[in-house]
Structure formats: structure tokens, C-alpha cells
Amino acid sequence: MLRKSALLLAVAAGLLAPTGLSAAPDPAAKDSATKPDATHKNPLVSTEWLEKNLDARNLRIVEVSVEPGVFERGHIPGAQNVVWHTDLVETVSRDIAGPDKFTALARRLGIDRDTTVVLYGDNNNWFAAWGAWVLAQYGLVDTVKLLDGGRKKWEAEKRPLDTRTAEVAPSAFTAQAPSPKLRARFADVLAVARKERDEQILDIRSPDEFSGKVIAPPGIQELAIRAGHIPGSVNIPWAKAVNPDGTLKSREELRALYAAAGIDGSKPIITSCRIGERSSHSWFVLSRILGYDARNYDGSWTEYGNAVGVPVVNLAGTVWGGK
Fold first, then answer.
1. How far apart are CA 59 and CA 20, in angstroms?
2. d(CA 309, CA 318)
3. What are the helix and strand counts (H, E) for the chain?
4. Contacts of residue 18, Cβ cutoff 8 Å, sequence gap at least 6
5. CB of 197 within 8 A of CB of 230?
6. What confidence score (pLDDT) does residue 321 get?
7. Rounded to the nearest 10 degrees, how much is the dihedral formed by the CA atoms of 79, 84, 87, 90?
């Protein structure tokens, strides 16, 4: 009987970790109801889990940071670099990377449909979340994770860094047309603004951007002609979902945060910011952590605020000062 039980346990362990990845629950989890563990469906992995699995056979680690040179100065061992404004987008037209470009990127990174991909970056994973949003449109969802806490937590814990470029075998990934289900367009948000569609818009910019006091944070190049926000949208700055150490708050805390503004998952949600990068972070929280029906509007305020003849709410009463 004991031998039979041992055999069953061994078989179960093999089923849980067929790719060499540790299937043990994430030690950083508060409990299974509040913080996900490191199993297949979990959208987050802890720094401890990742360090233990750096040499896993079917794991790819990808850094997507915004600060130039940060990857080259030192990165998580085995990580590969993705530059969000050239690798994940079309550089001439304003669009996400098309099927051909994404196919080439996935092959270079050694990513296939059964590869576990851990994304991380600076700025509390702003652009890593953008990467997750782009990958999701090409069908890479459950196998794609964010490193909870990103670079900030990894470095604060003095975990290993490397300056060498990882060499991986190219994959045979082939991208089909991206799914439109996770992306909101200008017409979608305009329909909500005009109350023609019963959806919610979550604007995750700063309160000053939302009110119209400023068009964009200081030093930002991409601007709009008008300040303010889309009518009917609610404002919850993206950073309210993050703990001081860069990790995401528990599910219960996140549900309460959004519910206080009337967002409880009962209606489809569109996340919006200035160019779609900060809002992709909130999209990840709503969609992947809470399981809500959410889309990201990457046109965001630089598209909507530059459009002619659309309704705008400007609480600050600012007027364009162009010359």
C-alpha cells in the first residue's frame, strides 16, 4: 500500500512539473485566496520562485524596461532584452507589432506556445505589462507571467544580476492575426462617452491629468491638444494597485480598490491613460488577477484628446495655449 501511494505521488509530481519548473506554491503568497501561487494559471511569480527556476528548461525570462541601458548594466541571469518602442510596436504606423514582426520576435526569444514566459521591468513593470498585453493578443496568456515586484524587488533583495546576453535556441512560433478582444479602439470609447454603449472606462492617469490641470507629466513628449478626460470615466491611478516594494496588492485589496469607484467586474471595462502603457498595467490587474472583462485602449488620451468634435470633461478649465 505504501509503495502504491509513493508511486501515485511521484506520478502526480511529474504531471505538475513537466517542463522542469517548480510547481510548489509561491512562498510569497499570503494565502491561496488572496495571492496567486506559481502554478500554471497564476499570472504572477515571486522573486524567490524565479531565482529557484532560473535554469528551468522551458522558461524564458524577458526584460521590458523603459530606461535606456538599464538592461545592459545588469539583468536577471538568462534574461533577454525587449525594447518596447521598437520590438513590440510598428515603428512607422501607430500599432502593436504585426504578425510578421511578432513572429520574428517570438522566434528570437525562443518562445513557443508551451513556453513559460516571465516578464519584468523597471517602473514597477509598466512596460512588462504592456508586453504581456501584446503577447496575449497573439494567444500567449496562461503561460505568460509577471515577476511580482519587477526589477525593483529583485534588486532590493540583492538577487543575482548578469551582464551577459543569453543565448537561446530559436523557436518555430508563427503568429496569426492578433485577437481584437483585448484592445479598445477610438470608436469604442467614443460610444461609451456618448452613452451608446454600457461599458466602464477606467482612467489610470494622475489626478492632475484626469482633471485637466496638466496635459501630461513633466518632460513627456507625446501630448494632446486638449486636457481633461473622457466623459463617464473614473480615475484610479495605476500605482494604487502596488505595494511600496513594487508587488501587487492582494486580490481582496484590489477588488475593494476598484469597487470603491464602481468597478466590480459586472460590466466590461476599458483601461486608458496617455499612450496605453500605464493602462496596460491596470489591464493586467483587472484581467489577469481579478478575471474581469477588460480591454486596453492604447490610443488613450493622445488619440482621444487630439480628436476633433469629441466630448471632453475638463474640471480644471484649462485652455490650450498654443502659439
1. 9
2. 17
3. 12, 11
4. none
5. no
6. 60
7. 170
Spatial separation of the C-alpha atoms in residues 49 and 37, rounded to whole Å = 10
Residue 314 C-beta-side C-alpha neighbours within 13 Å: 17
Would you state the cell numbers that stand for residue 289, as one nine-digit string?
Answer: 488577477
Closest-CA residue to 51 (of 17, 18, 22): 22
**Cβ burial, residue 121 (10 Å; 0-12/13-18/19+):** buried
- CA distance linking residue 316 with residue 227, whole number of Å: 9
The H-assigned helical ranges of 174-250 are: 186-193, 207-211
Residue 116 corresponds to which amino acid?
T
Q: Are 157 and 49 in contact (CB under 8 A)?
A: no
283 to 60, 238, 278: CA distances (angstroms): 23, 10, 9
Percent helix / strand / coil, the chain, rounded to 5: 35, 15, 55
pLDDT tens digits along 111-167: 999 999 999 999 999 999 999 999 999 999 999 999 999 999 999 999 999 999 899
Query: Is the pLDDT assigned to residue 204 strictly greater than 90?
Result: yes
Q: Which residues are catalytic?
A: 273
Provide φ and ψ at 186, rounded to 5°.
Answer: -55, -45
In Å, what is the CA distance from 158 to each residue of 31, 47, 163, 240? Answer: 25, 11, 15, 25
C-alpha cell at 141: 496568456
With beta carbons less than 8 A apart as the criterion, state whether 115 and 171 touch. Answer: yes
- E strand residue ranges, the chain: 44-45, 59-63, 79-81, 89-90, 95-96, 116-120, 144-147, 200-203, 234-235, 269-272, 294-297
* Eight-state DSSP code of residue 117: E
Higher pLDDT, 289 or 36: 289
CA angle centred on 278, ends 277 and 283, rounded to 5°: 90
**CA-based nearest residue to 225, from 284, 307, 146:** 307
